[in-house]
Design a protein that fits this description.
single chain, alpha+beta, Dihydrofolate Reductase, subunit A, 3-stranded antiparallel β-sheet
Length: 90
């Protein structure tokens, strides 16, 4: 296992290792870095009806750049959970 502070290099290495499979990342900080670098293809959000008081906000620290999302899928789960999937288009 290797660690890198260069998100573009890390994603490139992960995509090469994955071949034709998807590369998944988890965590708001990683998603934010990839969005800022313009290398995030899709975004999946699991909306759970519980409010937490702390943590890293997913859309914080993204700057003022406009980013378009195209809805790919919406799945309603049990207990009020909603799974949202978006393609990053701009």
């Amino acid at each position: 296992m290797r660690y890198s502070n260069d998100v573009e290099a890390a994603v490139g290495a992960a995509k090469r290792a994955a071949g034709d499979k998807d590369v998944l990342v988890h965590g708001a900080s990683t998603a934010q870095r990839m969005l800022r670098a313009g290398i995030l293809d899709e975004l999946e959000i699991h909306l759970i009806p519980v409010l937490l008081g702390d943590g890293v906000r997913l859309f914080e620290h993204l700057g003022i750049a406009h980013r378009e999302l195209e809805r790919v899928r919406v799945l309603e789960g049990e207990h009020g959970v909603t799974h949202l999937r978006y393609r990053v288009v701009g």
